[in-house]
């Protein structure tokens, strides 16, 4: 794609998440990177690593001799140490590099952020993005999911990420503050709850947050269990097996009351004559939508409202990123300022 001044445009859709950062480009590049940057703890670690820092899964695998920084917290940049800011800068730079920009490219990216991210948080992100992109726009994550689905009217998007859960009502316009809410609970909240539940139920086992996350990703469910959730763990250095079905269920269901409350509030924000349509048009997106039985349990818990239909998007991990890229391709960057906060142009 070529811009009006003749420069080649590299268009990016980016889902900058607490747990994973996903990028897609108009030239077919696609990458998923754990939102982690690892720095060597000492000179021996530098020798083992063979560099100054490393990203994603490689950083997690080598965590024994690295200091890990997750620069995103609850879906926005941490307002922490200079190393956190540096890690965020390096992560964004790394993700953009995975799109293989060519000399002379004008890099233009749309970045998904939590629905109610503050103006200050968006500003911090744009300041960092400006160092690697010519034009950057930040938009509500559930809005760009709705754009990817083509569900821009009489629908609700529930986007469950690692740090937050967004609930957004689509009314045929760009959603405003009253149309969307960010719940500060997501996959990480479940991981923490599961770690505690396993420790309480089986005091003899060694359990870490990383192990809890791994078990959640393997077994996560709500409602009725299809079978036992058997976990191999260690006790005193020896292997043991425990059935953690109830711990998985209770931990995953802890985010449900907040989701139901906010969905009900968002429904009430639609005109009464539209609410029946809206209740049949609810979509689950984000990594948390992979929790088995979540769609059915939401429908069951909301049965008092009449017929409720909840559908999981076909590719929940990529939906936000794909929606951002789709919008970037559909709308020339000169119009992006009409949608939200941006830099460049």
Question: Can you describe what's shown?
Answer:
With 345 residues, the protein is of the alpha+beta class. It has a domain at 8-144 and 318-343: 2-Layer Sandwich (Nucleotidyltransferase, domain 5), CATH 3.30.420. It has twelve helices and 18 strands. A six-stranded mixed sheet has the order 3-2-1-9-10-18, sandwiched between helices. A five-stranded mixed sheet has the order 13-12-11-16-17, sandwiched between helices. A three-stranded antiparallel sheet has the order 5-4-6. A hairpin with a 3-residue loop joins strand 1 and strand 2. Helix 6 (187-201) packs across helix 7 (209-219) and helix 6 runs antiparallel to helix 8 (245-252). It is flat, with a radius of gyration of 21 Å. The relative contact order is 0.15. The mean pLDDT is 92.
What's a quick, concise take on this entry?
The protein has 345 residues and is an alpha+beta fold. The chain has twelve helices and 18 strands.
């Amino acid at each position: 794609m070529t811009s009006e001044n003749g420069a080649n445009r590299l268009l990016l859709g980016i889902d900058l998440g607490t747990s994973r950062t996903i990028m897609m480009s108009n030239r077919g590049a696609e990458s998923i990177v754990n939102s982690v940057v690892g720095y060597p703890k000492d000179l021996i670690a530098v020798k083992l690593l063979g560099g100054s820092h490393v990203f994603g899964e490689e950083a997690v695998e080598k965590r024994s001799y690295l200091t890990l920084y997750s620069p995103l917290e609850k879906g926005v940049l941490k307002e922490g140490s200079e190393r956190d800011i540096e890690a965020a800068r390096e992560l964004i730079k790394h993700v953009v590099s995975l799109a293989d920009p060519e000399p002379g490219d004008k890099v233009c990216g749309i970045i998904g952020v939590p629905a109610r991210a503050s103006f200050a948080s968006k500003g911090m992100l744009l300041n960092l993005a400006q160092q690697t992109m010519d034009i950057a726009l930040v938009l509500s994550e559930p809005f760009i999911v709705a754009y990817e689905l083509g569900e821009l009217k009489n629908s609700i998007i529930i986007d469950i990420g690692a740090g937050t859960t967004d609930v957004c009502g689509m009314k045929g316009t760009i959603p405003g503050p009253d149309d969307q809410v960010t719940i500060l609970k997501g996959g990480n909240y479940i991981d923490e709850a599961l770690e505690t539940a396993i420790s309480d139920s089986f005091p003899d086992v060694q359990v870490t947050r990383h192990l809890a996350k791994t078990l959640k990703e393997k077994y996560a469910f709500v409602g009725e269990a299809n079978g036992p959730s058997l976990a191999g763990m260690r006790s005193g250095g020896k292997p043991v097996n425990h059935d953690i079905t109830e711990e998985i269920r209770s931990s995953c269901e802890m985010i449900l009351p907040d989701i139901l409350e906010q969905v009900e509030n968002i429904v009430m924000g639609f005109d009464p004559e539209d609410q029946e349509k809206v209740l049949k048009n609810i979509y689950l997106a984000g990594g948390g939508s992979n929790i088995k039985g979540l769609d059915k349990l939401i429908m069951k818990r909301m049965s008092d409202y009449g017929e409720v239909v909840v559908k999981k998007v076909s590719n929940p991990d990529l939906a936000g990123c794909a929606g951002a890229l789709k919008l970037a391709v559909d709308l020339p960057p000169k119009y992006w300022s009409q949608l939200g906060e941006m830099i460049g142009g």
